Automatic annotation (TrEMBL):
Keyword ATP-binding: yes
UniProt KW keywords: ATP-binding, Cytoplasm, Kinase, Nucleotide-binding, Transferase
GO molecular function: ATP binding; GMP kinase activity
Source organism: Phocaeicola plebeius
Family: Belongs to the guanylate kinase family.
Protein name: Guanylate kinase
Gene Ontology CC annotations of this record: cytosol
Record's function text: Essential for recycling GMP and indirectly, cGMP.
Pfam families to which the protein is assigned, alphabetical: Guanylate_kin
InterPro entries: GK/Ca_channel_bsu, Guanylate_kin-like_dom, Guanylate_kinase, Guanylate_kinase_CS, P-loop_NTPase
Amino acid sequence: MAGKLIIFSAPSGSGKSTIINYLLTQNLNLSFSISATSRAPRGTEQNGVEYFFLTPEEFKQRIANNEFLEYEEVYKDRFYGTLKAQVEKQLAAGQNVIFDVDVVGGCNIKKFYGDRALSVFIQPPSLEELRKRLTGRGTDAPEVIESRLAKATFELSYAEKFDVVIVNDNLEKAQAEALKTIRDFIQQ
Ligand SMILES: Nc1nc2c(ncn2[C@@H]2O[C@H](COP(=O)(O)OP(=O)(O)O)[C@@H](O)[C@H]2O)c(=O)[nH]1
Ligand SMILES: Nc1ncnc2c1ncn2[C@@H]1O[C@H](COP(=O)(O)OP(=O)(O)O)[C@@H](O)[C@H]1O
């Protein structure tokens, strides 16, 4: 049987990656959708593992070739997108594909696949808590944290467009809720 699609979107720092990584350990036959990006690899990142790394020119060429299911300029001059061929290959192999995409991309994938997709919004308890988590994560410079927070209000306004909203206040509770929701959807 062809697989289903599970889309996760959230403001940066909400706990989306933490919850996705947990779900990937839960025998749900999930396969992560590796996005393409025009940003350069950092540290130990490898092409085809964290992302497919493309130069801005290559990215634009693939847009022109209509190779993307969706793409967005998520941050200024930084494109992220989902390659159609990748997703179709995973679905055809019977895997359920899980996405970590921005709110606009998430809504576009849902629109394209309809009932075959479940869109999930991970909501932080508050903007103050989001700031604490981004600071605590320790991966971003203060100005990057500010730009992520500046975007968060816009992203939060998208919550109502998603099939399910999970508030990530207590992590264990949010993980359990995500697991139940996705298990039910996959078994439908
Ligand atoms: N629309 C869209 N957004 C994506 C895709 N891949 C990643 N994103 C989003 O792009 C943003 C990436 O930002 P960040 O977490 O800083 O990722 P980093 O570049 O790996 O540091 C997040 O909001 C992701 O959800 C994609 O294929 N399409
Ligand atoms: N419920 C929670 N309570 C406290 N900290 C959390 C919770 N969920 C996630 N975190 C922490 O918040 C930070 C941001 O989480 P992350 O999964 O990287 O977010 P995102 O992928 O949405 O940007 C991480 O350091 C993570 O360990």
